[in-house]
Write a structure and sequence with these properties.
Elements lengths: L1 H28 L4 H12 L14 H18 L2 H4 L3 H26 L3 H12 L3 H10 L6 H28 L5 H26 L9 H4 L5 H19 L4 H13 L4 H26 L2 H6 L1 H24 L5 H10 L6 H11 L5 H34 L4 H15 L4 H4 L4 H14 L3 H10 L13
């Protein structure tokens, strides 16, 4: 009997892996990040669809390891040297997103009955954007190494750094709030953690790359290098947990140290396959939480929240970036690229559940809106770019504006986004011709060329 049960489990694992691979390949065919495919695979396999995976707890441990690897990977990928060039605009934009997000959800709590802690959690979720999706879209439209790409990646780095204090704040709020002795202890713990993070960032940003003590012992061994990386990640997470902090905080710090050391290239190369598997499991577990019945029963609420968040995030991003002297086209493009909700929302809502801030219905709403925002991000980007192009071209006809705006969304259903992204050069040349004909400034034509992806702008730094 045990043998049959064991074989059934192995068969289930094989089916899960194949479905995840298939969904990831489909998303890659449409130039979307594979993580969206993993979430879709989880939704298909979960209780609300095929029901092949009924017990999420069976993969919960691997999903938690995936969270640690996600934080470790983000820490390794952070380029502090590139971040220095845009840190002011990136930090200001991130602070504006957090302030507006928490402020709006706090005001909404008077109508919805949310607690202050839940309003803070939802505000944090709203403030974050998806690094995987935004970078993928930047690559697709040829803007990754332009000024727009530099600003967008800078804001994403600032948001990644902001995740750590968000996790610490949720831990503190879930410890009974910030009142009494427990609140004082939680506040001191959070302050010391943030202080240590800031000091570490300053230290790593002002010197040459570190040489880790175990590098000489490990050498170039393909067997020991990935184990050393995993050991460093999980060891730091364990120490953080023993100190009463979030294990994810320790994993993130470990990633920062490795990412700013001479071991980074080898560590990234050798741990990448392990990271890919654990991250697949994490996003698959998120898909298992996606409740199709909940979305159908609350379709109006889910769509209303989705559109409000996308519109709010776009507006905040655009005005915050424009406040630092960037041109409107650059601010608009960067703002649209950052309009979706990020994958760290799943981490934050998991923390909220574990400390009693959020309930199952709150989790269903956040997961549903986040997944839909990730899926809709490329469509929104294409429509927004075309609408802005119509404004620059002076199109006043309603049907023509709708055709220009919704054309990319219709074509996206038929072919890949790379082909969809073509065809903008003619509009750019038409705009440049009109400006030359009527004596307009050349800057507008150049900006329009950037918007349609036809011009390769100045080379700037991005993530290493």
């Amino acid at each position: 009997m045990e043998a049959a049960h064991h074989e059934a489990q192995l068969t289930g694992i094989a089916i899960v892996a194949l479905v995840a691979l298939g969904c990831g390949m489909v998303m890659a065919r449409f130039r979307q990040p594979a993580v969206v495919g993993y979430i879709l695979a989880g939704a298909l396999l979960g209780p609300s669809a095929l029901g092949l995976v009924q017990d999420r707890e069976a993969i919960a441990l691997l999903a938690e390891l995936g969270v640690l690897m996600l934080l470790f990977l983000i820490g390794m990928e952070l380029s502090l040297r590139s971040f220095k060039e845009v840190w002011k605009i990136a930090v200001f934009t991130t602070l504006a997103q957090v302030a507006v997000g928490v402020g709006v959800t706090w005001l909404a709590s008077f109508l919805t009955g949310w607690s202050l802690e839940l309003a803070a959690l939802i505000g944090f979720v709203v403030a974050l954007s998806s690094t995987a999706v935004a970078v993928k879209m930047l690559e697709e439209i040829g803007e990754l190494r332009t000024r727009v790409g530099q600003i967008t990646v800078g804001v994403l780095i600032a948001q990644d750094l902001a995740v750590v204090p968000m996790m610490l704040a949720l831990d503190a709020l879930g410890s009974g709030g910030l009142e009494g002795d427990a609140g004082i202890i939680a506040g001191l713990r959070m302050a010391l953690s943030l202080g240590f993070l800031v000091l570490l960032l300053l230290y790593l940003g002002r010197r040459q790359r570190l040489k880790l003590p175990f590098q000489r012992l490990v050498g170039k061994s393909v067997d020991l290098t990935p184990l050393a990386g995993l050991g460093f990640c999980f060891g730091a997470a364990a120490v953080s947990g023993l100190l009463g902090l979030s294990p994810a905080y320790g994993a993130f710090l470990a990633g920062l140290v490795v990412g700013n050391s001479t071991a980074r290239p080898a560590m990234m190369r050798h741990t990448e396959p392990i990271q890919a598997v654990l991250l697949m499991v994490f996003f698959l577990s998120v898909g298992l939480l996606l409740d199709a019945g909940y979305i159908v029963d609350n379709l109006f609420t889910v769509l209303l929240v989705l559109f409000l968040i996308i519109g709010l995030k776009t507006a905040v991003n655009v005005f915050a970036i424009k406040a630092f002297g960037e041109t409107w086209p650059r601010a608009f493009m960067a703002g649209v690229l950052l309009a979706q909700i990020g994958e760290f929302s799943f981490v934050l809502v998991a923390i909220g559940l574990s400390v009693g801030i959020a309930g199952p219905d709150d989790q269903r709403l956040i997961v549903a809106v986040t997944v839909l925002s990730l899926a809709a991000a490329p469509l929104y980007l294409g429509a927004a770019r075309q609408l802005h192009r119509a404004v620059l071209l002076g199109v006043t006809s309603g049907p023509e504006s709708v055709r220009l705006t919704l054309g990319p969304a219709n074509r996206l259903l038929q072919r890949s986004r790379r082909r969809l992204a073509s065809g903008y050069g003619a509009g750019s040349r038409r705009l440049a011709g009109l400006r030359a004909r009527f004596g307009g400034a050349a800057d507008g034509g150049e900006e329009a060329a950037k918007l349609d992806g036809s011009g390769e702008a100045e080379q700037t730094g991005s993530r290493d």
